[in-house]
Amino acid sequence: MIPEDDAVAELRDDGAHRSARRAHARYASAAGQGRPQGTRFRTAPQAAPSRTVGAPARRMPAPAHGRPQGRHGVQPAYQRRSTTQARRKPIVPIIIVCAVAVALIAAIVLFVVPAVGRLISGSNEPAVEAGIEVQINIPQGASGDQIASILSQNHIIEDPKEYYATVSSMQADALLKPGDYLFTTLQDPEEVVQQLIDGPNVEGVTLTIPEGLTVQQTAERVQETYGISADDFLAQAKASNYVSDYPFLEGAYNDSLEGYLYPKTYSFQDDPTADEVIRAMLDQFETETAGLNLTDGANGLTAQQIVTMASLIERESSVESERSTIASVIYNRLDEGMPLQIDAAIVYARGGGSGTVTYDDLEIDSPYNVYQNTGLTPGPICSPSVSSIQAALNPDDTNYLYYVLSSAGDGSHKFSETYDEFQANVQEYRDSQS
Questions:
Q1: pLDDT digits 0-9 by tens, 220-250
Q2: Predominant location of this chain (predicted)?
């Protein structure tokens, strides 16, 4: 072999350097192309009164999600070297290998290690000791999920599925009662559900609010039971104090909670405040009406008007099966533009009392005087039951315009389409009272 002189060697080395730089440039160019990232998109969802047919509730389209797929692979560019060229370790592939290794380690640290840690910590967590007394409160209107969560969090029944299965096997879905309970950890599920059926086993003072009470009457009951001043209760019972938490109060007439303090039996372990009592009643109203779509109204009426009509039905009916028929009379009279002429509204307008409505009462200057004014009262006149609210939403289909107490004396009514029929029914009732 003929030895190379210094000049030839220098030229050869320089050529090798340029070749390596060209390879590096081609690799960097290819690697720099990048790849389009996947995108996510969302299609945005776009005794009187008259029946009007309400528009059906609109069903909004469910949101659609799509993720277009597409990836462009990157092929490394390289140059094959001859055996006579100086061998140099490729720098960029080494960097990529290192980056992949770092990413893999990071993934292990972020995902695998915590998962294993959770498994380990779970296996090392001390078991809950059975038989420890636990006192809990089941709120008014609590759902099955809420009850299961309370029992599980307090380790009374560890597995919510076990609770659901027991409730189902005992057919107890509608029998569970709110209130304060004393249980023990890891208690037998059937014993727990049976106690929830029997009712609270911790002493507490109960408050019973019958259907048809006004806010004033409710305040008096609260005062009798818990010693909360009726005046303080009424001062707190303003819609503006609660509308942010209970949207159904939006637009409540005269800033009043009339119609929304739901009638039911309530239990409080300690001496409650006026605010706590009111919130329990509003929670119960929300629970009772959750499936009725009050926000959409019905038959052309707003949610506020539905509750108002329900309060009239509540005070006019003592036989539950007649409530939807009385609702039909109110709607029919509204259709005809006739005054409702409901005495219960006159009693409310005069400030209450149990005395008979007089002719002087019919002259009261009040928006609640439905003898002088047509249409519904401007707001509810009492707190209606859910059955009266359902009747207001689903009246019977009749042509009745009148009703009067029947001679049977059981609180039922006789209904009629004409005034002559009504007068005959009135006379029949009067005769039965003589």
A1: 999 999 999 999 999 999 999 999 999 999 9
A2: membrane
Q: Which residues contact 412 (CB under 8 A, 6 or more apart)?
A: 319, 322, 405, 406
Tell me the C-alpha distance between 180 and 135, whole Å: 7
- Helices 160-169, 189-198: axis angle to 10 degrees equals 60
Contact 316, 342 (CB under 8 A): yes
- Reference 350, options 370, 320, 333, 331; nearest CA is 370
- Which tokens belong to 326? 């009385």
Residue with tokens 């009043």: 256
Please report which confidence band the pLDDT of residue 195 belongs to, taking 50, 70 and 90 as the band edges: very high
Percent of the chain with pLDDT over 90: 52
Tell me the domains of the chain and their CATH numbers: 133-203 (3.30.1490.480), 204-291 (3.30.1490), 300-400 (no CATH)
Length of the chain: 434
Cα separation of 296 and 306, whole Å?
A: 10
